[in-house]
Amino acid sequence: MKGHKDKSGIVLDVRNLNASARTAVLNNYTGESGEVAAALPGGKLLKWVAVSFCLVCILQAALNISLRLALRTDASCKNLTEEEDSLKKNNDGKHHGIKSPPASQNNILTRERDDLKRKLADFASQNNILTREIDDLKRKLADFVSQNNILTRERDDLKRKLEDFVHYAQQGWQYFNGSFYYISSTKQNWQDSRDDCLQRGASLAIINSKEEQKFIRQQQETIIWIGLTDKETEGVWKWVDETPLTGSFWYSGEPNNYRGSDEDCVVINYYNDENSWNDAVCENQNLWLCEKKMVI
Ligand code: MMA
Ligand code: CA
Fold it and tell me: Considering just the CA atoms, what is the radius of gyration of the chain in Å?
């Protein structure tokens, strides 16, 4: 066999190569001295081919592994996404009623609905009770307000009465059985005396009982006008408050219109006697007795 031997001793047959390939091979295998190597370096080429082949194989293997891994990851990702979507749908359905719930879910909802219905009924009944209670309280409040108004009026009334008591007591009036009495320190005719008592918020004394008659006689030391007159109709005696005379304490022989004089006004004259009244001329000047009835 005719061929070229390279440094490793491998024989490279170039006879079957075409002209250009042969030239290339031979150029590659030119010696250090520039002359064409008698034996072509076929061993080195083979080595490179083998190495290249190995590299290609390794690359192929790496590619395979990468592709497999990529595919597997892609598949598992797809699985996970599907699973996630399914869970999402399920969850959305629960909350928004998009998806009809399973039977157990339906039972729970029915129970919840019934519970809420019962609670609503309870609330309605409780509401009725509270409404009645509110109405009751409103009525009670109105009663309290009205009672309060009555008590306020009573308090104000008592206040005024107390103020009256203080006022008359401080002015030196004497209190007896529901009335204050005052004997003047100056003398006037009957009409002026009457007017003076009115100005003091009182009237000339009106005597309605033995006790009152006795009390007045004990207070006086002289003749005093009282609130009895027959000025309007002779012989018809009337108190200044327009009430007629029922019980009287005329002194013996009175009233007498003494010797034809017009005696129309009454004085307590004979104060040592229980029957102490005398009819006298109204223009006479006398002390007078005012009475202020205190309504308790
Ligand atoms: C006085 C006078 C009269 C009374 C007689 C009684 C003198 O007049 O007070 O009114 O009736 O006394 O004697
Ligand atoms: Ca008389």
Answer: 71
**Cβ-count burial of 16 within 10 angstroms (0-12 exposed, 13-18 middle, 19+ buried)?**
exposed
Ligand 1, from 258, 266, 273: best to mutate by most atoms within 8 Å of Cβ?
Answer: 258
Q: Tell me the one-letter amino acid at 180.
A: F
Ligand 1 atom closest to residue 255's alpha carbon, by position in its atom list: 11
Which residues lie below 8 Å from residue 130, measured CB to CB, with a gap of 6+? none
Q: Is the Cα dihedral 281, 282, 288, 294 positive or negative?
A: positive
pTM score: 0.59
Q: Do 272 and 236 meet the contact criterion of CB atoms below 8 Å apart? A: no
The residue contributing the CA closest to ligand 1 atom 9 is: 280
Segment 197-227, tens digit of pLDDT: 999 999 999 999 999 999 999 998 899 999 9
DSSP one-letter code for 37? P
CATH superfamily of 175-293: Mannose-Binding Protein A, subunit A (3.10.100.10)
Supply 245's token pair: 């005379």
Distance (Å, rounded) from C-alpha 74 to C-alpha 55? 28
Strands 4-5 and 11-12: antiparallel
In the Cβ-directed half-sphere of 195, how many Cα atoms lie within 13 Å? Answer: 5
Q: Say which residues have a Cβ less than 8 Å from residue 92's Cβ, sequence separation at least 6.
A: 98, 99
pLDDT of 116-138, one tens digit each? 999 999 999 999 999 999 999 99
User: Which ligand is the nearest neighbour of the Cα of 230?
Assistant: 2
